[in-house]
Amino acid sequence: MHKIWLIIQREYLTRVRKKSFIIMTLLTPLLLATFMILPGLLISMSGETETVMVLDESGLFEGKLEDKKDLKFIPLAGTLDQAKTIYQETDNTALLYIPEMSISEPKGFTVYGKKNISIQTQVRLENALEKEIENQRYIASGIDRETLDEIKANVSLTAVNLSDQGEKDNNAVITSVAGVAGAVIIYFFIFLYGVQIMRGVIEEKTSRIVEVMISSVKPFQLMMGKIIGIAAVGLTQFLLWIILSFIAVTAVSAAFGVDAAPSPAAQYAAGQVAAQGEDMENADISAMENPEGKNEFASTFNDIKSSFANLPVALIFGCFLFYFLGGYLLYGSLFGAIGAAVDNETDTQQFMMPITIPLVIAFIMSYSIVLKNPDGPVAFWMSMIPLTSPIVMMVRVPFGVPAWELLLSMGILVAGFIFTTWIASRIYRVGILMYGKKVNYKELSKWLFYRV
Amino acid sequence: MSILKIDGVTKTYANHTALDNVSFEIPQGCIFGLLGPNGAGKTSLIRIITQITGADSGKVYFKGERLKPSHIKDMGYLPEERGLYKKMKVGEQLLYLAQLKGLSKEEATARIKAWVDRFEIREWLGKHIEDLSKGMQQKVQFIATVLHEPSLIILDEPFSGFDPINANLIKDEILSLRDRGATIIFSTHRMESVEELCDNIALINRAQKVLDGPVKEIRDAYKTDTFQIIGNGHLLITSPDFEVLEQHDSHGIFRANVRLLNNTTPNDLLRYLIQRVEVHSFVELVPSINEIFIRKVKETHHA
User: Fold this and answer.
1) Which of B10, B85, B97, B147 to mutate to test the interface with A (most CBs of A within 10 A)?
2) Any A CB within 8 A of B97 CB
3) Which candidate in A207, A399, A414, B112 could, as Cys together with B83 as Cys, close a disulfide (CB 3.0–4.6 Å)?
4) Superfamily for domain range B2-220
């Protein structure tokens, strides 16, 4: 046990002290902070007001085009040519020309600009004009806008779980986010650090230290020490990322005086507001400007908060830790075995395939099938098979999984990683002393039963 | 008393036999040469002794006990394929390997200090292994092998990769380790390189032990009572007691290889010579281990 501890320490310390580790650990939160801050920063920077000069020959829109926070209208009089000349002398964004027309047949709108007019501006102008035309048509048919707004319905579904524990609010999207986030982390962790195990073993083989090592320790101790040591490196890195990201985001947003870009939940909320019948283009504006939108936003936000509160956080977190470690141990020992079986990294391809495929399939299935039907047969079986269960079960857990399924899946996973560790240690102890031999699956299967 | 006893050890890999019923003993406190051509099975045997692999059949006794894991910390092994963690510093690496052999941190640190002073490499301690030359790495690895003061030190091809100066340094260290009571096993295919160092040897060829015992006894057993004489004058041996195997004359100097017959002694030959020529040199021609090996291998093949 003492020796394993020494090995764990070495694996941990040499990696944590590497420059690449320190740089990655510091850089990632900074990048993350940048990505979170940048959109907010850009929005606030591009927030300059656009001014559009309007020559309205029809007279229909006179005084009707409302100024918005960042879009102002200046009415002009005279002929089009005169207007063009005046416009040329200013540095306004555009000149909108509305010809003589009737409200029943609006056409011939033209917008002049000194350079290309952005799509966004065009769309906003179109919206403003459309809205006004609609207004005028309502008036013509005897309805005013306010009446219409009163008629408009706005429905937001609250889904409630009727389960043994009684009623609880449920928000499918939030549930999905929690599960998928956990699954994604597990997926990347297995890949990132599994490959590190493999590289570590190959390094020991190519530097020929391995024979010295296993004249002091058992191959199994060496393998497990490496797997556990690297797991600790990974956990350290994730922990530091979480802490540093939090600090970085706080610091950067304080320094720039910008709110961080909306969190995924808030973005989702904004999206929902937009989806609930308002013009897509105006969604963010309406959310900011129109009091009704604000209320809606707030209520949606409260929905989300209550959904989070209703998630079985302790259960999800517990499952996350379990599947995180279980999946890592299961795959980690396989990665270690691959490292032992080959002489250099280029030879790993053929053995990487069968390990990568179940992981990738689990990941894709989580999105495409499991999320849509978390209690379906595909979801069930994939959350039982230990090669896919760390990812698939993680996606399912927030939706509520019967206790027996969860326990069965965990039991199978434990059995699975004991099994893969056994296989890996058999391959490992033969492989680490085998040089210059191209190994195939037949050879590997023989190694399992070698007496060493 | 023997520190290591190998009793009928057999090891087969998938399609070849690495060791076939090999038995011999290694006396305590000697330098033991494990000799044989490449692929004879030396490394397989060493891996069994160091418990890297197990024998298919047969037994190994270390200090009278069946080999068991706790013996590992009393052995030091320098493999033929040298290697250290390239990204680790010399000091850390030595400390790590010593601790894995069961030394406490304090003890290991003290011993590392003593060794780097002896080898005058103190300034290397903070360097990464990959920044050292190959010879330097070998020195570090040698220290790592003996740092825990094992009573059995196994060196596989110890002098490969060393320049003559460092090879001598290592040789002296090995002799002083033996004088302090350690037993050393040398494994090499270059038999001439270690025969003057070794007290005992075992010859292995094609998975089988060909020969073992104290070097002197083996040589005595294989010597042919042949002497090389160099001298001045015209040598013509007519006595039936002496057989001239080879003779060269040039400018009045002769060189002759003469074998004693009929139980005559070297002194008889000298007496015979002194009456006839001026003797400059009189040397017994003892077969080298290499020659004995070749002869022995031929014998076993013809038999």
Assistant:
1) B85
2) yes
3) A207
4) P-loop containing nucleotide triphosphate hydrolases (3.40.50.300)
Among B100, B105, B138, the residue to mutate for chain A (most A Cβ within 10 A): B100
- The residues near A74 (Cβ < 8 Å, ≥ 6 apart) are A51, A52, A53, A54, A92
Question: Considering only A49-58, B17-26, B55-64, which range has the smallest mean pLDDT?
Answer: A49-58
A212 in contact with B at a CB cutoff of 8 Å? yes
* Radius of gyration for the alpha carbons in chain A, expressed in angstroms and rounded: 31
Q: Which pLDDT value is given to residue A1?
A: 65
| Closest residue in A to B87 (Cα–Cα) | A14
The nearest CA of chain B is from the CA of A362 a distance in Å of 36
The CATH 3.30.70 domain(s) of chain B lie at 224-285
Encoded amino acid at A9, one letter: Q
A211 contacts in B (CB within 8 Å)? 52, 77, 79, 81, 83
Cβ contact, residue pair A433, B52, below 8 Å: yes
CATH 3.40.50.300 domain span(s) along chain B: 2-220
Per-residue 3-state assignment (H helix, E strand, C coil) for A136-174? HHHHHCCCCHHHHHHHCCCCCCCEEEEECCEEEEECHHH
Residue A20 touches chain B, beta carbons under 8 Å: no
**Minimum CA–CA partner of A208 in chain B:** B83
Contact (CB<8Å) A217/B84: no
Pair A191, A217 in one domain: yes
Distance CA B24, CA A229 (A): 42
CA distance B188 to B80: 9
CATH for the stretch B224-285: 3.30.70
pLDDT given at position A265: 45
- CB contact B105 to A (< 8 Å): no
Distance from CA of A211 to the nearest CA of B (A): 7
* Model pLDDT, residue A48: 66
Instruction: Report the pLDDT value the prediction gives residue A272, as an integer from 0 to 100.
Output: 43
Q: Is the pTM of this model over 0.80?
A: no
Judged by average pLDDT, the poorest of A67-71, A183-187, A193-197, B200-204 is A67-71
> Cα distance from A20 to chain B (closest Cα, Å)?
13
pLDDT band, residue A303 (cuts 50/70/90): low
- Kindly report, residue by residue over A108-146, the tens digit of the pLDDT: 888 888 777 777 788 888 888 888 888 888 888 877 777
- How many Å apart are CA A360 and CA A31, to the nearest integer? 26
Q: How far is A7 from chain B (nearest CA, A)?
A: 8
Confidence band for A232, pLDDT divided at 50, 70 and 90: very high
Q: Is A79 exposed, middle or buried (0-12, 13-18, 19+ CB in 10 A)?
A: exposed
DSSP state of A260: P
Res. B62 pLDDT band, cuts 50 70 90 = very high
Per-residue model confidence (pLDDT) at position B303: 56
**Could you tell me the residue range of the domain that residue A116 belongs to?**
50-151
Task: List chain A residues with CB under 8 Å of B72.
Answer: 215-216
The structural domain count of chain A equals 2
Give the chain A residue nearest B70 (alpha carbons). A216
The first and second tokens of residue B212, run together, are 């073992």
